[in-house]
Amino acid sequence: MKKQLLLLVLLVFSAGASFASSPRFYEASSEATTPDVDKSYEALVESINDFDALLANQLDSVKTMFPNAVSDDMDPMGGIEATRKGLADILTESKGKYDAKTLTIKEVEKYQSDVEAWKEGMRDVVAQAAMLEFSYQSNEHYLPAYMNLYKAMSDVPQNVMNYFYNQFSEIETELNNAYMEYQVMAEAYATDWTIEKAAAYNKLFDDASNKLTPIVDAGKAAGALVDSITATLDSLDAESAKVKKAFPQYDLSMMQESADYWKNLAAEFTQAPAEGTTPYTEEQIAGFAKELGYFKESVAGLYAQAQKDEWMAQFNAKYAPASEKMNELVSTLDAQCPTVGSKYFTQLDDLNAELSQMYMTLYMGELTQEQFDAMLARIDAILVEAQKIVDEAIEAEKIATGISDITVNKAVKAGNVYSLDGKRVSKSAKGLVIINGKKVVLK
Hints:
Distance between the termini: 134 Å
Strand content: under 5%
Strand order of the largest sheet: 2-1-3-4
Largest sheet: 4 strands, antiparallel
């Protein structure tokens, strides 16, 4: 049917082109018959010539306005000849009768009626050409846009389709409204159709189709995000169960708050956005995905972190008093060993450094239970070693200053007792004295 209509357009329009390139069919005869017949006959000839001019003037513009309806790949020659012959027959027959003075008013009216029928046919064909052009261009722009719409809707994962449905619906409304306006314009060709208007509507179709890409991209990103959230929350449930079993007192409240946030975000994508809110873009969803990555790392390391926190609590229970004890021993060494203290200070410092390194190893590293138990045992061993160092330092200080643990009875047997200023004192004196030339502490 479409091909037949296109042929009809070409038949009429091409005929006009041939007329336009030829002389006017006939001039009205100079021979008079009757005034009424003369006048009618002249009107008939003028009508045919005007019709010819109209075809000539409109043919190029119609081809420009309806390039797809007026196709060059069809052969309109037979129809053109038939059209020209029909018009020529009217002129030949009417002129013959006019010249023979047998032409009547009624016959002229019949010929004029036939010409008007040709004109009306031409107008119908132009309207058909407009509709054909509309059909062609709508197929080229509207239908692909509509197909793109439904493909885009199928590309968005079903788990987030409710969230993006309204955006697709808005585009569908844009397409339908533009299509209806376009159709009305085509039907009202005589006053409304222009090539510029047609191009503008085609651009509406194309623009609407172009809006689909960012929606689909956002939809795919949202679908992947929701799937990832679901999987992460499932992992959290499993990890939390392990932690509760191993460390019943461990506080999981912060993890639960984070889980609630992600549950709520995933729930947003199961329904249309709240009224007055702008749907998330692909870029925003990518930001959520990045944040979720950090949460996934926390979930994956939850048990290890809980174990580390538990170990840290046990370690601090030993480390804090051990650190205080080490400070006491340092103070003792400083007070009682001023002479030899520096040598032993270095040894205490090494042990203190080992304690600090233990803390950092526990905080930063990954230990086995066996390594952790060995670390706790080492704290006890360090305190024993530190006490031994201080004891040795005190003894060394005594030796360095000439002080020994000679008792009173031994001192008495050894000789007389003198004070530090050289005065002889009682053998029952207490404190630092001199016996046989040596400093002795009597108790």
